[in-house]
Amino acid sequence: MRRRKTGYILLALLVITGLAGTYHSSLSTKERKTAISYLKETKNLLLTTVNGLNKAQLDFKPAADKWSIRQCIEHLVITEKNTSDIALRNLQQPSEPARRNEIAIKDEEIIKKITQQSLQPLSAANIPQPVTGRIKTNGRHIDEFKSLREKNINFLKTTTADLRNHFIEYPAVGTMDNYQLLLMLAAHTRQYTMLIIEIKSNPDFPTVDAILGPLLQAIRFDILYHP
Known about the structure:
Radius of gyration: 23 Å
CATH superfamily: dinb family like domain
CATH architecture: Up-down Bundle
Structural class: mainly alpha
Distance between the termini: 92 Å
Number of helices: 9
CATH class: Mainly Alpha
Largest sheet: 2 strands, antiparallel
Number of domains: 1
Low-confidence stretches: 2-25, 121-126, 210-227
Number of strands: 2
Helix content: 55-70%
Strand content: under 5%
Mean pLDDT: 79
Strand order of the largest sheet: 1-2
Shape: elongated
């Protein structure tokens, strides 16, 4: 009787501390750490890349048919939300361990495939389109993205779901499991961060001097002619 009571207490402690999720999860400790690390890494890279950009820089387009940085970030916000919704809906279905032999791509191959995939044309039907003007300022872009990404990271930290035995079909990859779906999400973030870096390297990208120059000139004119 005492042994059974001790067992119940230990189980309760596991649930309270979150360790029960690790014990029952289909993910190994290494898999969980790998995915969390990659989600954090790609989040931080994006935040660093867009930090301090002003309106003119966010809205700059290398060409009329190309996306701006603002549109890229809006696309990432939409994709972050859509992907987590798909994953959660998928987990409501029964596990299908018999389907594991349908997966023909390894975790690391998904990351490589997505990050090296061409982003052209950006108007492809299977790419969620940004809603121009939906998010007005850089701060609100980033706040929304950060909030969604943190939810996905926390989900991976605590979930007890059988991610490896729930599957989804994706056009560029084929059959993959829910764990791979989250890896793909992180790789997708890196893919678009590289596009943002490319936009920033455009010779016509607005610099601080180009933006402040006319303003400073107007201020000097006002000082000279309106003492």
